[in-house]
Description:
By secondary structure, the protein is an alpha/beta fold.
Amino acid sequence: MCTIGVEDAHRGAQKQHVACALTFLMRYHKEGDGMVSHIVTGDETWVSHITPESEQQSLHWKHTGSPKRKKFKQMFSTRKIMCTVFWDRQVVLLVEFLPQGTINSAVYCETLKKLRRTIQNKRRGMLSATILLLHDNAWPHSAVQTQDLITSFKWQQMDHPPPPPPPPAAGTGFSPLLPLPK
């Protein structure tokens, strides 16, 4: 019973991926290469960061016979920041770093406004045609406020399929490809 549910979830996700790909290909067949030049893709990732000691900070006076200074291994900070990147087929348009805990619809809308200004500056003339925005369907992207802003820009969104369901938990003995033991 559990295996069947997992199989159905995987089949459903696979069908959504195929439907999105088919929609893209049909549009490409209808509009040609010009369509591809209007796609702007966005993605986010969490980035751990460190603040390394500068060369100036590590310099100090010492006597020639004094022991060598121990340099401690640098550890990554537990602090993370969100890195959001938007690009088209020619250039990276915008890279933005946001501190942890501030990602919501209002912040994402400000990022989209910066993206629009960047497109105006870096890709003159691109806004005269419809921008096809390809970003995932995270909740800040699909919020009403975000959708209203995208509509006001006269941008279109390309369907992005949801991620596939996670595999069964390790050690459960269930596999999406094998039937349940009797």
